[in-house]
Design brief:
370 residues, two-stranded antiparallel ribbon, 10 helices, globular, disordered C terminus
């Protein structure tokens, strides 16, 4: 298995910010890119030298959360400020991190009978107030880490519970299908994190599919940004249209699939297509999206049939098979077939519309999960 280092802000957004003429915007983005590169390299070296991962906990129906304060430094994890069962902190960022870890644990336990990220009671650790003006949040294979944002483009990264669910779901994917982080399999990796991140938020709010906003990172963009979130599953490509960030590049269908060597083959961009397929299934079935639509996606992720290099068409076929196996030929199965048809991905055994995986061109960015 490859080492995990997953960030929520895609590198193409930070790249664009880092080139801005306004140094108040460019400097934090540049420092964040440099910090991420350093952390990614450290993670790889630790894996090569076989530094042990966080030991599994004891399977339990209760989370084992610990939140630390990095105090704007970069040494992890920092000072322990709230352990499982402790009373709320005076620091709202600490409480949001604690609650977000709990909300993610709760969805996986109550909806899918999964005991933490690895299904073996893995302790959930988080550090807040990481670095100065750090414009990201990440899962490094061992813990969550949250920056405070620069206050200009990004707010505190604990604000959006779906961001926490997104990052922790990279851990679930790592422990199950371990999808390769490039091209269509990488976009599926990203999409699964968006799907379950959104479901964490919906479960916490007890929202039905039609009540949910289907946004990833709502509240994360500072007031000066013209946009509502990082991504929209309901309407990919509409989350932001800003003079600094540019326009949301996500396609909703294969007709607008983006061919690029950047961002590991467009993993944060083309994930809009499977994201939209899930939204369409959930919308069609109605009610609570984590129940039937989410169950189909969870069965597909954890069923053992999903190849590490799966493309969209392979994933689509497996979701159809999962729907049929659990629910028969009823509305769930029909909803899955229709949704993938609407986004232009075949479920009938036909080949994918694009080459499955292609080597990254010279100078392409190394894998960074987000």
């Amino acid at each position: 298995m490859e080492p995990i280092f997953c960030t929520i802000i895609p590198p193409h957004i930070l790249d664009k910010l880092a080139r801005n003429e306004d140094q108040a915007l460019a400097d934090p983005a540049r420092r964040t890119l440099e910090r991420d590169a350093s952390l990614r390299t450290r993670r790889r070296l630790e894996t090569v030298s076989a530094i042990g991962p966080v030991p599994a906990g004891v399977p339990s129906d209760h989370p084992a959360r610990t939140v630390y304060d990095a105090k704007h430094r970069t040494e992890l994890p920092g000072k322990k400020v709230r352990a499982e069962g402790d009373k709320a902190s005076k620091d709202l960022t600490v409480n949001r991190a604690y609650d977000g870890l709990g909300a993610t644990f709760e969805l996986y336990l109550k909806a899918y009978n999964r005991q933490s990220i690895d299904d073996s009671g893995l302790p959930l650790l988080a550090s807040v107030h990481f670095d100065e003006g750090y414009n990201n949040a990440f899962w490094n294979g061992e813990q969550m880490v949250f920056g405070d944002g620069d206050g200009e483009i990004f707010n505190d990264f604990t604000i959006s519970v779906d961001v926490i669910g997104h990052e922790l779901t990279h851990g679930v994917t790592f422990h199950t299908a371990n999808l390769e982080y490039f091209g269509q399999s990488g976009a599926l990796n990203e999409s699964l994190s968006d799907v379950f991140g959104s479901l964490v938020k919906q479960y916490a709010l007890q929202q039905t599919a039609d009540q949910a906003d289907w946004l990833i990172g709502a509240g994360l963009l500072a007031p000066r940004v013209t946009g509502v979130a990082l991504r929209s599953m309901k309407a990919p490509g509409t989350a932001y249209d800003d003079d600094v960030l540019g326009k949301d590049p996500q396609p909703a269908t294969m007709d607008h699939y983006v061919r690029t060597g950047r961002d590991n083959g467009g993993v944060h961009i083309n994930s809009g297509i499977p994201n939209h397929a899930f939204y369409l299934v959930a919308e069609s079935l109605g009610g609570l999206a984590w129940e039937r639509a989410g169950q189909i996606w969870y069965d597909t992720l954890t069923g053992g049939e999903l190849a590490t290099t799966a493309d969209f068409a392979a994933f689509a076929r497996l979701t159809a098979a999962s729907a049929q196996a659990r629910y028969g030929d009823g509305e769930e199965y029909r909803a899955v077939l229709k949704a993938w048809s609407q986004v232009g991905v075949p479920t009938n055994g036909g080949g994918a519309e694009l080459p499955h995986q292609t080597p990254a061109p010279e100078g392409a960015q190394p894998p960074v999960h987000g």
